[in-house]
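Hi U.,

Before I forget, here's the chain from the pilot set. I'm dumping it here mostly so it's searchable later in email.
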Amino acid sequence: MSTHVAPFPQVDHQRALFPEGLALDCGMAIAPLAVAYRTYGRLNAARSNAILVCHALTGDQYLAEPQPLTGKPGWWQTIVGPGRPLDTDRYFIICANVLGGCMGSTGPRDEMTDAEGRPMGRPWGTDFPNVTIRDMVRAQKKLTDHLGIERLLAVVGGSMGGMQVLEWAATFPDAVYAAAPIATAAYHSAQNIAFHEVGRTSIHADPDWRGGRYWEEGLVPAKGLSVARMVAHITYLSEQALTRKFGRRLRGASALTFLEDVFEVESYLRHQGSTFVRRFDANSYLTITRAMDYFDLAAEHNGDLPAAFRGTRTRFFVASFSSDWLFPTTESRAIVWALNAAAANVSFVEIASDKGHDAFLLEEPDFHRALGGFLAGCADRLGV
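Structure:
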């Protein structure tokens, strides 16, 4: 029986290995633990210029260089580099693949181990433990400790990355000088959980799902995973962005048909789905979406969100986008309210944009100036 894991080839990612593993919120432990990461710029002698960037659901550690499986540009290369908001001449930028991911950090594609950490000869698959955003952050903390960094200049991230930023500030406040949660929320809403469940159901309904053991036959539930990506991608855009980019333009179909793409937007979504399955594992998708669904920072503090930040000395920069209906500005304002109630140092900006949730990944000069100014101000205060 084959244990080849389709659909993409193995990549020799840069990784830190932790034989002792990691205890998880669910009560299980993973050992050994691998955290795949990339760095940009140089760590200064005082080790005071490190910025950790946390990626979103379908992101990875390759934020400022071509993705090794697709060759596409890094997902945040527009703001990483000399003279850019994440200035590699000034800062040491770190980005790690999240726990449960499929780009080198320990996840469902990796070999399963027993309670003593002994390999069992097959991938974890659906037996991979339930992980939380806090588990992801604990794994990242192991990485920063491994790199000899006691306190990060900043932790920055959007969407699920923003959830990780909030968890960093709540769980390791003394290890974070500044935090920039972008286009995110302190909990995952019922609407967002519902969208995730549509995606998960489409994966489960794929004939190649095989109960999550598709890897045994060298298969991948490509149709289901593609639909999950298509549904999610719609939520990342705004109606204005879709109208501007596609409108109701046709692809030249001469008659009404359900057998081919008629509208350009259909072709675009199918392309998004087909390219996604070449770089992402279905079991990782299930694991990570569920981690987002579990996230509720207030629940971790008996329903008291300000308590998550009480006494913090971390400086916060919270940003939202006016057309983002996945993580609307009201949810960013709730974070700001909690930070104010905790007497935290916080600045907030809502960026006027018609690009939807994905605006934080795109060319938005006002956002870039605001984030760059915040980080530069923090660096100035620390003498970096």
